[in-house]
Amino acid sequence: MKSAPFEYRRPASLAEALQILDQHGDDARPLAGGQSLIPLLAMRLAQPAMIVDLGRLPELRGIRRDGSEIAIGAMTTQAQLQRLPLPGILAAALPHVGHFQIRSRGTVGGSLAHMDPAAEWPALAVLLDAELELAATSGRRLLRAADFALGPMTSAIEPNELLVSIRLSGAEGPFGFLEVERRPGDFALVGAACHRGRLVAFATGAIAQRLTRCEALLREDGSPGDLRALAEAEIEATGDVHASAGYRRRVGAALVQRAVEAAA
Amino acid sequence: MRLELTINGIPWQGEVEPRLTLADLLRDRLRLTGTHLGCEHGVCGACTVLLDGEAARSCLTLAVQAEGAAVITVEGLPSSLIPENAFQCGFCRAGFVVSAAALLSDGRRRGRQELAEELAGNICRCTGYRPILEAVLRYQA
Predict the structure, then answer these.
(1) Among A169, A199, A225, which residue terminates a domain?
(2) How far apart are CA A182 and CA A190, in angstroms?
(3) What domains appear along chain B, each with residue ranges and CATH number?
(4) Given an 8 Å threshold on Cβ–Cβ distance, is B60 in contact with A100?
(5) Residue of B65, B67, B115 for testing the chain A interface, max A β-carbons within 10 Å
(6) pLDDT in tens, B61-83
(7) Which chain A residue is nearest to residue B47, measuring alpha carbons?
């Protein structure tokens, strides 16, 4: 449980960080809060030649508001975010993002870049149709959440790029956000969320899944029983040591129904 | 790599390997063995320390990330916070004491349910948690 040796860089500016990534590409791994990467290092599931510590880049911390739009700096910790006035759905989701001793170091950008299928931020990004801002030495680009999430533990960030912010607009309003977890703060066994007629199931399969057929049923005012049955059919679940695929579909469908009721 | 930080109010500087965790710096280099290592991947909470006032897993923090930081370990906290008799084997105690100190530092009094949920990031395999929660509730009162 000890990491293999690596070279360590601690850039003092975003420009310097991007230059290091440009030079070292695939050999370098950015380190945000380390709450996912450091366990991977300890278990030697990741053995990068170089770690680029983003911890001293103040330009990536904090949030900016413009009307109903919020841009959250990628290196903002979950705990820093929790201390700010936030749209209800974010305030409700954040206590589920690890334990408070994890939220003190874990960052929004780190969670999005890590793209764990059970994590809250990738699900929120898809649900709220967030835009992800990526930077490289050659310039910046914006990606919609649906294009950013490629698969389990896989985002669209290129080796020479850094995620610098997540932009949300219209995140206010009624919502439902529900998880089943063994202890508060543990990884979800199953999760579902609803906001402005959009529905996402997470911790169910390979990736946070938008339930478009269920959304269509909502627009047609389908009955709660129909919604639950459709959700159970639509959720693409996988089983593992924590829960079977059948459990995830059944419990996921129940959570979908409750999330819709909460958001009504 | 050169590292400077303060631990329980005392400045420390030295050479460390980048891969050294804060937990291993505390235990192996500084012999502050009150901080325990259980799972070494952030799940059990035994290694919790205060990093610039916030509770953090020292097994999930590289020592070099704590450059310039103020670290408080269980050795730097009042032992009255959770007395030893609230535990059996005591392995998890440091993590609970530090976590409780971080929670209570905002001065807000918490109910049993809220405390139980907030302290869910610390695992105890002996007690069933009740005596630990009772002790924190008594300390608050």
Answers:
(1) A169
(2) 10
(3) 2-76 (3.10.20.30), 84-140 (1.10.150.120)
(4) no
(5) B65
(6) 999 999 999 999 999 998 788 88
(7) A101
